[in-house]
Amino acid sequence: MRITLPAFSAVVAAGLAASVIAVPPATATQPADPAVVITWNAIAARTILTENATPVPVSTLYFGFVSIAVYDAVVTIEGRYQPYLRQPRARGRASTEAAAATAAYRVLNYYFPTSAQNLAADYAASLGSIPDSRAKDRGQAVGEAAASSLIAARANDGRGANITLDVTPAPGVWRPTPDAFAPMLAPWLGFVRPLALRSPKQVRLSGPDPITSKAYARDFAEVKAMGAKDGTSRTAAQTETALFWNGPASGQYNAALRERVSRSGMDIVRTARAFALLGTSEADALIACWRAKYDYAFWRPITAIRLADTDGNRATAPDPAWTPLVATPPYPEYTSGHACLTGASTEIFSRLFGARSIDLNVSSPVTSTTRHYATATALDTETKNARIWLGLHFRHAMNDGNQLGHRVATWTASHEFLPRS
Cα(first)–Cα(last) distance of the chain, in Å? Predict the structure, then answer.
C-alpha cells in the first residue's frame, strides 16, 4: 500500500528551499557548518515521504539509516563521539561537509533509486559550495565509507519479508476495517532487526485490557463519544487538534528538529548526533510497536463499537453505524504507532533540550498550522488525546505506546552515539 501526501509535499518543499544554502567549507579557524546536516535531513524527508510515498511506519527506518550514516561520517572526522559502525580512519584533513553530504546522498540513492536525478542535483549543489581540494576528496571518501558500512550492515535485516497476519475473527481480535478492508500494512516491520534494541520484543508490554474489564469499558466509552465522525462530544478545538496530528508524524518531528537545532547554535557534531538519536529511536520504537500489533492483534474501535454486543461486557453497547472521524489505518490497534513514535521523539527532545524546555515548533500538513510545545509532557498529552479524538485508539494503547517509545529512546541514548572515552 502506498500513501499519497500532496499536502506534505508543499511543507517539505518549503522547508527544503529554506534549508538548502551555500555551505562554506571548514578551514583551520572556521568549524564545519551544521547546515549540511539539516539540509540533507530535509532532502531525506522529500525523498522518503514525498517522492516515494513511503508509509509512515516504514519511513522511520530510512530516516534512521540516513541519520546514522551522516553521524558516522561526521564523527569519523570530528571525533568526540563513538561511531555507530566501525569506520576507517580519515587520512589527513578532510571536509566534514563533503563527508556528511556524501553519506546522505549514497544512502538515499541506494534505497530510493527512482529519486536518483533529484538526489544527484542536490549532491552537486552541496559539493559545488566546497572548493576542490584534497580535503574535499578525503571527505567524500569518508562519506562513501560511512554509507557503504551502513548499507552492508542492514543487508538481510528482515525488510520486506514474506510475513502476513493471519488471525481468526473473534471478539477482541483485529480484522480489516472499512472502507478499504485492507490486510495489515507491513507486518514484516515487527520482525526487522532493530538498530539499537537487542530484539523487537525487548520492551515488555502489559497488552490490551480484557474486553470484559471495567478499564476496557471506560476506554470504549471515551472513544465512542469523542472519536465519532457524527454526533460526537468533541469541541471544535478538539477536532482541530485531532486533525493536526493526522499527518505523517516522522516527517513532522524531523522538520521540528531541523528548525529547533537551527535556533540552538549546535555545532555539526551535536547536530548530526541529534538526528541520529531521533532517527534511530523512532525506527526502533516502530519496530517494537509493529511487533506488538502483530502479536496482540487487537481490534480497532470501529470494529469494537459496531460489534459490542459480542464482547461479553455489559457496560458496552453496540452502534452498528458508528464511524471514526477519519478512516482507520490497516493494522491492529494495540499498541498505538503514533504514540510509540511520539514517546521516542519527546524522550530525545528532552535529552537534547530539557524535558521542561523543549521549545519545539511543530507544523501540520493537514491543517497548515504550526503549534508550539514548551514541554515534553504537553506534546505527549496532546498527541495521546488527538488519536482518541480521531476515533482510532483506546487510551490504554496510547499510554502504553507512549511509554514504549520513551523506553526505546532511553535505551538508544544509553547505548549508542556515546562520547569517546
Answer: 45
Instruction: Please report, in tens digits, the pLDDT of each residue of the chain (421 residues total).
Output: 223 333 334 444 444 443 443 344 444 458 999 999 999 999 999 999 999 999 999 999 999 999 999 999 999 999 999 999 999 998 899 999 999 999 999 999 999 999 999 999 999 999 999 999 999 999 999 999 999 999 999 999 999 999 999 999 999 999 999 999 999 999 999 999 999 999 999 999 999 999 999 999 999 999 999 999 999 999 999 999 999 999 999 999 999 999 999 999 999 999 999 999 999 999 999 999 999 999 999 999 999 999 999 999 999 999 999 999 999 999 999 999 999 999 999 999 999 999 999 999 999 999 999 999 999 999 999 999 999 999 999 999 999 999 999 999 999 999 999 999 8
Cis previous bond, 179, omega within 30: yes
Q: Report the interhelical angle of 268-296 vs 56-78 (nearest 10°).
A: 150
CA 401 from centroid of its chain's CA atoms: 13
What residues contact residue 380 under an 8 Å CB cut-off, 6+ apart? Answer: 342, 343, 346, 402
Cα–Cα distance, 303 to 167 (Å, whole number): 15
Question: Is the backbone of residue 172 left (phi > 0), alpha (psi -120 to 50) or beta?
Answer: left
d(CA 202, CA 198): 7
Global pTM reads 0.93
- DSSP track, 295-310: HH-BPPHHHHHHTGGG
C-alpha cell at position 388:
482518541
- Residue 298's region, left for phi above 0, alpha for psi from -120 to 50, else beta, is beta
